[in-house]
Design brief:
14 helices; binds 2'deoxy-thymidine-5'-diphospho-alpha-D-glucose; 3-stranded mixed β-sheet
C-alpha cells in the first residue's frame, strides 16, 4: 500500500489486514499529511511493515517489490488537498504525475518477471477521485465511468494525468490495473485541513467555521469505511482495465454539512465555548475555480460487484464527530505538530519532508 499513513490509506490498511490477515507493506513519504499514529492499530501486527519512502524512488520501489513479492499494489499516495494545489502545484505534479509514472514503471518491470499464474492474478489498483470529471450544473446527471474528464484545479488535473497513465499501462503493456474514482470521504484520522474535521475541531474550540462563497457548493459524501470496503471489493473482484465510480448517494450543500455538524455537537457536546455552534459559521472568500457540484453514479460497482455503502451521511457523520471528541490525543498531536517531531526523532532530520 502506498500512502498508507494518510487518512484513507491508514483506514484501508486496517480494513484489509483485519479482513484478510494478509501481510501488508506500507510505503509512505510521511509528508505533513502522513502520520504514523494513523497506523497505530496495525503497527504491532507482525504482518505489517512500514517503510519510509517516496513512490517516485525507483530504486527503493523496485527493491521492495522484489523483496516482498506482493500480489497487488494499491496506490493511495498523493498530494490530496485542492487549496494547497492552488497555492503550490509543484508537489502535486511531482507526486501525483511523476511519482505515479515511476511507480507504474517499477510495477510493470516486476509484473513482467512474474511466473504466468502470478502475472494473471496480479493487480495494480489506483485510488482516484470524482474531481477528474469537473463540475456539474444542478440538473446534470451524476458522473458515470464514461463521463468525459474535465479537471479544473491543479489537484484534479494531476489526478487526471495519473489516471490516464494507469489506463495507458493497461492498454499498452497489459498491466492488470483497476482505477477507482470516489467522492468526498470523511471519518477517523482525516487531517483537519479538510472541511468536516476542520469544522468539528474549530467548533469545539469556539473558533469561526469558514464557509467558502455562498456555501451552496455540493459534494457527495462517503464514510471512509465504506470507501475501504469498496476498494477491497474492486481489488478482489474488479475486472482488469476497468474503472469504478464510488459514491454515497449523499449529495449535500456545504452549508448543510456544516449545520449538521453543529447540530450533532449541540447534542453530544453541549460543553463547548459557543453553543449553539451555528453561531460560529462565517462566510469567507471563495476558493478560486471552486467546482459547483459533484455527484456520483455508483450503479456499476453496485450491480457488478454488489457493493453498497453501509453508513448513511447522518450515521457516518455522528460516528466521525464522536471519534474526534474521543481522540483528543491524536488531535493534539496533529494540531501541535507533535507527530512530526516524532518522525524527526525516529528517522532523523534529513528525512523531514516539507
Ligand atoms: P492524505 O493527504 O490524507 O494522505 C496522502 C498520503 O500519501 C500521506 O500519508 C502522505 O505522506 C503520502 N504521500 C504523499 N506523497 C507521497 C510520495 N511521493 N510517496 C509516498 N507517499 C506519499 O490523502 P487521502 O485523503 O487519504 O487520499 C488518499 C488517496 O485517495 C489520494 O490519492 C486521493 O487523491 C484519493 N481520494 C481522496 C478522497 C478524499 O475525500 N480524501 C476522495 C477520493 C479520492
Ligand atoms: O471529491 C473528492 C475530493 O474531495 C478528493 O479528491 C480530495 O482529495 C478531497 O480533499 C476532497 O476535495 P474537496 O475540495 O471537495 O474537499 P475539502 O474538504 O477541501 O472541501 C469540501 C468543500 O468544502 C469544498 O466545496 C470547499 C468547501 N470548504 C472547504 C474548506 C477547507 C469550505 O467551505 N471551507 C473550508 O474551510
Amino acid at each position: 500500500m502506498t500512502g498508507g499513513a494518510g487518512f484513507i490509506g491508514a483506514n484501508f490498511v486496517f480494513n484489509w489486514s483485519t479482513a484478510t490477515g494478509d501481510p501488508v507493506v506500507t510505503l509512505d513519504k510521511l509528508t505533513y499529511a502522513g502520520n504514523l499514529d494513523n497506523l497505530r492499530m496495525v503497527q504491532e501486527r507482525k504482518e505489517h511493515l512500514f517503510v519510509l519512502g517516496d513512490i517516485g524512488d525507483c530504486a527503493l520501489v523496485g527493491a521492495l517489490l522484489r523483496q516482498h513479492h506482493p500480489k497487488a499494489v494499491v496506490n493511495f499516495a498523493a498530494e490530496s488537498h485542492v487549496d494547497r494545489s492552488i497555492h503550490g502545484p509543484e508537489d502535486f505534479i511531482q507526486t501525483n504525475v511523476v511519482g505515479t509514472f515511476h511507480l507504474l514503471q517499477e510495477v510493470r518491470g516486476y509484473w513482467e518477471m512474474l511466473p504466468a499464474p502470478e502475472r494473471t492474478r496480479f493487480r495494480f489498483l489506483h485510488v482516484s477521485t470524482d474531481e477528474v470529471y469537473g463540475s456539474l450544473n444542478p440538473d446534470d446527471p451524476p458522473f458515470s465511468e464514461s463521463t468525459t474528464y474535465a479537471p479544473n484545479s491543479p489537484y484534479s488535473a494531476s489526478k487526471a494525468a495519473s489516471d490516464h497513465l494507469v489506463r495507458a499501462y493497461h492498454h499498452t503493456y497489459g498491466l492488470p490495473t483497476l482505477t477507482t474514482n470516489c467522492s468526498n470521504n470523511y471519518g477517523p484520522f482525516q487531517f483537519p485541513e479538510k472541511l468536516i474535521p476542520l469544522v468539528i475541531l474549530n467548533a469545539i474550540s469556539g473558533n469561526p467555521l469558514p464557509v467558502y462563497g455562498d456555501g451552496m457548493n455540493v459534494r457527495d459524501w462517503l464514510y471512509v469505511g465504506d470507501h475501504c470496503d469498496a476498494i477491497r471489493c474492486v481489488l478482489e473482484h474488479g475486472r482488469p482495465g476497468e474503472t469504478y465510480n464510488i459514491g454515497g448517494r449523499s449529495e449535500r450543500a456545504n452549508i448543510d454539512v456544516v449545520r449538521t455538524v453543529c447540530r450533532i455537537l449541540d447534542e453530544i457536546h453541549p460543553g463547548s465555548p459557543t453553543v449553539p455552534h451555528e453561531k460560529l459559521i462565517t462566510f469567507v472568500k471563495d476558493r478560486p475555480g471552486h467546482d459547483r457540484r459533484y455527484a456520483i453514479d455508483a450503479a456499476k460497482i453496485e450491480k457488478e460487484l454488489g457493493w453498497r455503502p453501509k453508513e448513511s451521511f447522518e450515521t457516518g457523520l455522528r460516528k466521525t464527530v464522536q471519534w474526534y471528541l474521543d481522540n483528543q490525543a491524536w488531535v493534539r498531536g496533529v494540531t501541535t505538530g507533535e507527530y512530526r517531531k516524532w518522525v524527526e526523532l525516529h528517522y532523523g532530520a534529513q528525512h523531514q519532508p516539507s
